[in-house]
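Let us walk through a complete example step by step. Step one is to write down the protein sequence. Step two is to encode the small molecule, zinc ion, as a SMILES string so that its atoms and bonds are unambiguous. Step three, shown after the inputs, is the structure prediction itself.
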Amino acid sequence: MHIIRWFFISSIAVASVCGDDAAAPQSGAKTKPAPDPPGITLDWIHVDGPYIALTFDDGPSAKLTPKLLDLLAAHHIKVTFFLIGENVAEHPDVVAREAREGHELANHSWSHPNFGKMSDESVRSQIRRTDDAIRNAARVTPTLLRPPYGSVTARQKKWINQEFGYKIALWDVDPLDWKRPGPNVVCNRIVRNTRAGSIVLVHDIHPGSIEAMPCVLNQLEAKGFKFVTVSELLAMETPVPPKPSASPKAAGAKPPPTLASPNN
Ligand SMILES: [Zn+2]
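Step three: the predicted structure of the complex.
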């Protein structure tokens, strides 16, 4: 019941502010549900084993990200950072440290605009500049893109994948930490909703989100979860077994619907 209610709350949040940041544009309905090109978008991944991926968006923050890195190192945990190009250019040393310590670096645009409402040329520039900044800072070429607010059209997904080779990495667990509900709430929401194969969305630019992390890591570890990067999780993907009671047509169907996945 809790989970169902959470699905509902998350969906509302996504519809109203597009999921991953308070500064999301408020107006305009979500983009029309166009058919998604297969194999490009990730939100939850079917894996055999207790593997999950924590992801941190909108950084790096000069103040908070190093604190997070210290904590992750103490737990021997690798995560994925979805970086804002402007912040990468400002704090390349923090990004270099993220890479050095084994974390995955990924593209979250240059200045956090809404791709779904932009021209191809502007989207291309946002992606390319960030790609270049990450490569300059850490000598790493990202393979994952998370569009700000999860906003991207099916058509954009297709050409972004073809042109840059990026997969579009969304999430299935969203604690709405950008609303700053307090560390305990952030921790409880994550721990309650995370399951094997989850991609968890957090922001390393809010103090309360970082304060929630000791609780999150301790509790998820206590539940037996193992932490990997999104690319590692993707590499572990296994086919979803057919449901015993399903009709033959449903065999081999895609995974069950997941929560809070805009444009999906
Ligand atoms: Zn963001």
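Step four is interpretation. Residues 1-19, 22-31, 250-264 have pLDDT under 50 and may be disordered.
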